[in-house]
Amino acid sequence: MSERWFPDAMPRPAVDADTAPFFEAAARHQLVVQRCTACGAHRHPPRPLCPHCHAFDVAWEQVSGRGTLFSWSVVHQPFLPQLADKVPFVVAVVELEGTGGTRMTSNLVDADLAALAAGLAVEVVFEDMAGGLTLPRFTPA
Amino acid sequence: MSGRSACIVGVGETAYTKRGGATESEYRLALHAILAAVADAGIEPAAIDGLAPFSDERSGPWTLAGDLGLDELRFATTTAMPGGGGACGALMEATMAVEGGYAETVVVYRSLCQGQFARIGGTRAAAEEAAPEGLATTALETEALAAFSAPYGVLGPSVMFGLPMRRHMARYGTTSEQLGHIAVTERAYAAANPHSVMGSRPLTLEDHQASRLVADPYRLFDCCLETDGACALVVTTAERAADLAQPPVAVLGCAQGADGAQLGGPMANAGSSAEGYGTGGGARVAARLYARAGLGPADVDVAQLYDNFSGQVVFGLEDFGFCGPGEGGPFAASGALGPNGSLPTNTAGGNLSEAYLQGLNHLLEGVRQLRGTSTSQVEGARVCLVTSSPGIPTSAALLGRP
Q1: B132 vs A contacts (CB less than 8 Å)
Q2: Residue scoring higher pLDDT (B143 or B226)
Q3: Do A11 and B134 make contact, defined as CB atoms within 8 angstroms?
Q4: What is the gyration radius of the CA atoms in chain B, in angstroms?
Q5: Do B274 and B294 form a contact (C-beta atoms < 8 A)?
Q6: C-alpha distances in Å from residue A137, one per residue of A25, A103, A115
Q7: Do the beta carbons of residue B351 and residue B308 sit within 8 Å?
Q8: pLDDT digits (tens, 9 = 90+) for B350-380
Q9: pTM of the predicted model, to two decimals?
Q10: Rounded CA gap, A67 and B325, in Å?
Q11: How far apart are CA B60 and CA A107, in angstroms?
């Protein structure tokens, strides 16, 4: 099991045919994003159609897991009772290395809140949650 | 202006109270607001032949049509511009129906009692229903895009809208103090508006800076109110308006839209350029709006800019051309939005201090400014800009004194 940062009692993601490979890879502790096999454009979150060339065919490309902090919000209000002892926590928008600027919303964990800045180098970590769900989060590199 | 040009001829509203303060049902408030609006216009309710709600309106047109005794409901629509992006979109669709001859008298309305139903912010409402173990199916699981935000704690609009604002701050140096000036200015306008929820509670910049962080960069006083209330307005043709009780306010133009960056909402990231993230995404809506009305930012005498969070006003100022990209914070802090500024803004107190009717109250205040009856009247105001929410598919309108 991985290190734990968040409680299991969080909203769980919908998983459907278009998104399942993302979560299957995360369970293997691999970070993948969709890449259009026709035009090569990366995209995230997973969607059924390439908005650039309208191809449905897609490959799931493993990325380095490194990136930079693009934007963030330090959440102070525990929107759920089970988050009361988890605040403040950081919701992060991370620009993923090697993806043409593709961004992913996740969390930044184990970070110095006073040192948050755009461009901060980060890398992926994985948190194994209950019920076979694994979520990628990020930590300062 | 041709005989069929759309005008707003009536406005109506219930008392606005804190969440849970309404003594009647949300549906009854919708009836009260619509009746008040048609009474203000000087027409009978039976003359309404169109209804245009927006957002997740629970008081449905067909039920209202029956209870109001309409002769025939010929036009009903709910704009697809979501949530707070929709008030001006509803006005646009009412305008299209009237000017196109599909209806004569359309009422735009919103009734919203957050004390009687789940609080606004679907992700949060759904999250609250999650089973203790968090394993139950929730409404979130039907939202493919929320699947890539809610599990990470994006559980309220403050987080969703805080993320692009933080990007703006990182890029341009916009500060919390600048946002505080917006909150303080709106509270001062609310103090003059006896209908506002927060008018009796003064707010200083120090109070703003001392208020607790909800989701950085947004503090408590950067966040809109959660209230109970309803409001409505009546749209008809200029020809018919000439015979009615109130001086008509012309709908000079409307626009709806969403830049690619906003097509999937602010959390989607898909398709958004690095430049587009952390803007309001409404620059092209603004350009279409001004072109349609044959006006520009310099013609705007007073503005009602959507403010579910204080920073949304910054985005509105930039998108609609009152300052350059990145300049919205200093512009707001300069005093420009106050009663003696170059662009008096949210002159009834806005979503931050009047009430949260998802911006339909902004349209009502625009009408009052052009009738000359605002509690913070801008002398000689002839043109008012009203915007709906930045950061999501949105809409805007220009209103004028004919």
Answers
A1: 9
A2: B226
A3: yes
A4: 20
A5: no
A6: 14, 13, 18
A7: yes
A8: 999 999 999 999 999 999 999 999 999 999 9
A9: 0.95
A10: 26
A11: 39
